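Reopening this one. Same input as before:
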Amino acid sequence: MKQEDLAAKVGVRRETIGNLEKGKYNPSLVLAWNIAKTFHVTIEEIFTVEE
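Same output, byte for byte:
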């Protein structure tokens, strides 16, 4: 899926998706939930916490 397509589905700008992919942006819980829902997976399958 293109960044533009995902961004449109979850209601953010394409740049936000790009920054998520690069690790430059931490998503809100709502955004993480919407992305996971789009791909029919759990949040934990997409996002991890690194200390």
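So the earlier flakiness isn't reproducible anymore. For the record, The first helix runs from residue 3 to 10.
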